[in-house]
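Take a specimen:
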Amino acid sequence: MSIEVKVPQLPESVADALLAKWHKKVGEAVTRDENLVDLETDKVMLEVPAPASGVLKEIRVTNGTTVTSGQVLAIVEAGAVATTAPAAAPAAAKIEQPAVAAKQGADKSGPAARRMMEENTINPAEVAASGKDGRVTKGDVIQHLSKPAAANLPAAKGARTEQRVPMTRLRARIAERLVEAQSTAAMLTTFNEVDMTAVNELRNRYKDKFEKAHGVKLGFSSFFIKAAIEALRKFPAVNASIDGNDIVYHEFYDMGVAVSTERGLMVPVIRNAENLSMAELEAAVGNYAKKAREGSIGLEDLTGGTFTITNGGVFGSLLSTPILNMPQVAILGMHKIQERPVVVEGQIVIRPMMYLALTYDHRIVDGRESVQFLVAIKEALEDPARLLLQL
């Protein structure tokens, strides 16, 4: 029986996808739910599984083609058996070992890096990995491609090399959205600083008990999300969005948390964050970050959001001006915690300080509201009991 392999239903916010890579050839055996092809959207890499076990009978769309929801990509003959004769045992032994090694290396690479290695016929085992847990990053592949063809031949003295690679759909979409924000919104950024002493002391006092009780580490994310929610309650305009000529005031708090990945910046959304505990928030942030970096995050995880938090401090940034995640009207930037001399009650003391930045759309949010919003976050973090009492 012939079964069509179709593009899955894409969300309304995603018009089409790019067929990135076929993993099977016509005539090869396939197993039900085995990944046949990768589709690259503006936000994530989608895998299209085999609808049944059998043989890939026909491929109708080639690599690099733009496809839409419901479009037929291939035909699988269910229950059929591949007629390709297996290679002789000695040959198989010679070929199989490098293939296994390549697969093991590929398993530790992200979708963008894996795709680039496949396109350039690179054995992942030969690429020097710099990512966490030995993961091969896209930058590692580019670095590998820039090396001389023979490992024992040094690059020519004074050689000037460069690599030209196509912009991924995600990177192109990020660029488009950033330019849109710059040209559409009346963006302005206001700053403040927060003394992280109280939060640090609270984390140090309870982090072991917290992890033992909830199975997740107590980080900074939950404190900032909770503080932002309480500030948003006081200043609802900061939690709004623009729809045409209308201002939509959201009475819920879907918090976007920016995550840096090999493919670019992603902003998974924690739905109804106001109803979650500190432990649930930490678990959600950790889970989304893991899925985003592995390339397994879903489109539904990236849609919506009423307010966004981004943390440049994990990369060492002391101060920055984040760009709005349209159509949201505000974004909070966290930065590196650094010990600095500050004046407290007339005395110079050393405190762990963090600069905060709030970029907002001045069409909707007034300067007074933006400043008071940051002050509310500052007060909540410097006196965490306010979060419990919702003050």
In short: Confidence is low (pLDDT under 50) at residues 85-105. The first strand starts at residue 2 and ends at 6. The radius of gyration is 25 Å. The chain has three domains: 2-78, 89-145, 170-389.
